[in-house]
């Protein structure tokens, strides 16, 4: 007797043996999966090194969800970036911050405070308007917040975590992260304002070379003549403008992930962002030093907008001559 | 000194405004810490 059931079972078994993929019908979306490249490379060999595997083996899987980035299972470049963050970047940070503080301390011990050679005059001269001082402090305060919160991203786990513990450090890092994200906007506004208002006073010229040749009078007692801004201040201006632009571009790319570049590009952006920031931190520490404890009378320019007339003649002789000749100088007796 | 205070107030106000505007935009960088477990990740 012909057993129909037995015949059907046999046919089904034969079909499954002949077409094994049909047994995985639920995996139909993988039907168009691209075949792995045949490279002759065997990642299972015992003597194969991990780096070689990561460099040659396919690391991108196949997915059917909309976010195609999720197909990237391992991103070897991320290890290079992580190793840089955990090693060289920490040393660079220490060199820029602690190294600069050390240099400034040494300079202060050797040179002392730079005093007004002729002593304080009986008169003050207007140097900066209220708006100029506002945009300076807008940029300066926001920069300080960004620098501190950025340093926490780089070195917080090494410096603060052991001191504060997980909970306190986590809470602090959350708020510093938000601070970094959102204070970036007044910083960018301040940089743009300073660029527009002070650009005409910061065009480099031959006098700046003479100023640098004499180290701006920092090492001796001779003060090279300078306009509204001397060579050193012009250098600070361009460091802030160009550095600020670089930080803004890379920072915005990181603030909106994948909107500008991919993960490797964002890692590069972070490296550039951190590098520019460290150079600026070192430069701004020098600027803060010479504008406060390093030089008598300098802080008055940004505090009240008026400086001692003798200080102005020693450090910005050409500017004093210019505003005196124009009749625009605002001079009045010191109280 | 008044310009320093004005600058600080402006920073606080503009940062708050930026936070309010950007909170309407879905960005992983801006919302990372709103993700459960992210606080632990930050510490570890």
Short characterization:
The complex is a heterodimer of chains A (335) and B (44). Chain A has 335 residues and is mainly alpha-helical.
Describe, in plain words, how this protein is organized in 3D.
The complex is a heterodimer of chains A (335) and B (44). Chain A has 13 helices and 3 strands. Chain A is elongated, with a radius of gyration of 32 Å. In chain A, helix 12 packs across helix 13. In chain A, 26% of the residues are buried. About 5% of the residues of chain A have low confidence. Chain A has a 3-stranded antiparallel β-sheet with strand order 2-1-3. Chain A is an all-alpha fold and 335 residues long. Chain B is mostly helical. Chain B has one domain. Chain B has 3 helices and no strands. The C terminus of chain B is likely disordered.
Q: Low-confidence parts of chain B lasting 5 or more residues at pLDDT below 50?
A: 32-44
How far apart, in Å, are the first and last alpha carbons of chain B?
41 Å
Global mean pLDDT of chain B: 72
Count of discrete structural domains of chain A: 2
The CATH superfamily of the largest domain in chain A is Transmembrane di-heme cytochromes, Chain C
Helix/sheet category of chain A = mainly alpha
Percent of residues in helices of chain A:
55-70%
Number of strands of chain A: 3
What is the CATH third-level topology name of the largest domain in chain A? Fumarate Reductase Cytochrome B subunit
Mean pLDDT of chain A, to the nearest integer, reads: 85
Beta-sheet strand percentage of chain A? under 5%
Order of helices and strands of chain B: HHH
Shape of chain A: elongated
């Amino acid at each position: 007797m012909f057993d129909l059931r037995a015949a059907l079972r046999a046919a089904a078994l034969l079909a499954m043996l002949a077409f094994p993929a049909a047994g995985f019908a639920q995996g139909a979306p993988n039907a168009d999966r691209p075949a792995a490249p045949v490279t002759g490379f065997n990642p299972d060999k015992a003597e194969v090194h991990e780096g070689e595997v990561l460099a040659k083996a396919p690391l991108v899987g196949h997915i059917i969800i909309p976010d195609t980035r999720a197909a990237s299972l391992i991103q070897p470049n991320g290890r290079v970036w992580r190793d840089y963050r955990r090693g060289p970047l920490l040393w660079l940070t220490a060199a820029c911050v602690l190294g600069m503080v050390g240099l400034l301390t040494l300079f202060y011990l050797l040179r002392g405070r730079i005093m007004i050679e002729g002593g304080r005059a009986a008169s003050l001269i207007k140097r900066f308007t209220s708006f100029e001082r506002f945009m300076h402090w807008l940029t300066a305060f926001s920069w300080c917040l960004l620098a501190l919160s950025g340093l926490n991203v780089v070195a917080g786990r090494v410096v603060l975590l052991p001191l504060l513990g997980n909970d306190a450090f986590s809470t602090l890092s959350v708020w510093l992260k938000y601070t970094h994200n959102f204070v970036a906007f007044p910083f960018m506004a301040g940089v743009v304002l300073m660029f527009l208002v002070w650009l005409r006073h910061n065009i480099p010229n031959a006098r700046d070379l003479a100023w640098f040749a004499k180290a701006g009078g920092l090492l001796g007692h001779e003060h090279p003549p300078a306009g509204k801004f001397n060579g050193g201040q012009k250098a600070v201006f361009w460091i802030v403008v160009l550095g600020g632009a670089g930080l803004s571009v890379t920072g915005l790319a990181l603030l909106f992930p994948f909107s500008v570049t991919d993960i490797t590009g964002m890692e590069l952006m972070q490296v550039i962002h951190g590098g520019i920031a460290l150079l600026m931190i070192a430069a701004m520490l020098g600027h803060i030093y010479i504008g406060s404890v390093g030089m008598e009378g300098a802080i008055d320019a940004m505090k009240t907008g008026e400086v001692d007339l003798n200080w102005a003649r020693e450090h910005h002789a050409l500017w004093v001559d210019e505003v005196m000749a124009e009749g625009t100088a605002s001079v009045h007796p010191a109280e | 000194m008044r310009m320093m205070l004005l600058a600080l107030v402006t920073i606080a106000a503009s940062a708050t405004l930026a936070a309010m505007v950007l909170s309407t935009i879905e960005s992983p960088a801006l919302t990372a810490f709103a993700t459960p477990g992210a606080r632990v990740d930050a510490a570890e």
